[in-house]
Specification:
By secondary structure, the chain is mainly alpha-helical. Helix content is 62%, strand content 3%. It contains 7 helices and 2 strands, in the order ααααααβαβ. The N and C termini lie far apart (54 Å).
Amino acid sequence: LMVWPGNRQPVSFRGILVVYNISLTLLSLYMFYELVTGLWEGGHNFFCQDTHSGGDADMKIIRVLWWYYFSKLIEFMDTFFFILRKNSHQITVLYVYHHASLLNIWWFIMNWVPCGHSYFGATFNSFIHVLMYSYYGLSKRLPEPFIPGEQCEAAKTKNGLRRPNPHLRAPDAAISDLQRSVMCEPAS
């Protein structure tokens, strides 16, 4: 599958990825909230919970677990974004195994045992995905971090409009952030 993109340039999905990551953050937050409130309402025992012993709360948990199962299908889109953006280093054996096995495991759970302690993995994973997809969404939305030395050097070499201030030269270890911010002065 990694051969398919060939010699083409990576595709930028910045806007789509922001919407995608925010949507998965909100879906994961919804699932986490509903699972936690369902557990609370049903009085679940964290050590030994019978199947279908929580009444209406079990039905709430089962409905959310179907959304969780569906979210595993949506998360396969991560792989396609990696491929189209030519980020093949992010597709590891563990990544492929994790996504392929989760879909099969949750199909089994949802068809035969969609209650009892089946909530635990989904609750934990939903919480982690809130953190993960919100980080991914913010990293696609925010500008690149400002690194003064790099901007100065890039500007100097790119268009010659700026040159380093020779009076502020110091070893890199001794340069403070304030000094870095004033190391470039407009060329005269």
